[in-house]
Amino acid sequence: MNLLSTIVTHAIAALFTITWMKKSENKRNRTLYIALMVTGFLWSQLQTEYLIWRINRKIDRVG
Known about the structure:
Elements: H1 2-62
């Protein structure tokens, strides 16, 4: 009977740990996804501003 209770206790602990880690992993993944989206947006804006600056600089040199 002692062996059976040990096995059941380990199984419950394993299921609890799996569930807890999955929730924690989902939260980290969501945070990482949002951070990557914001960083990608900012990088895109920076590139756009740089290209506009280069175009305006070339127009000023020609004109």
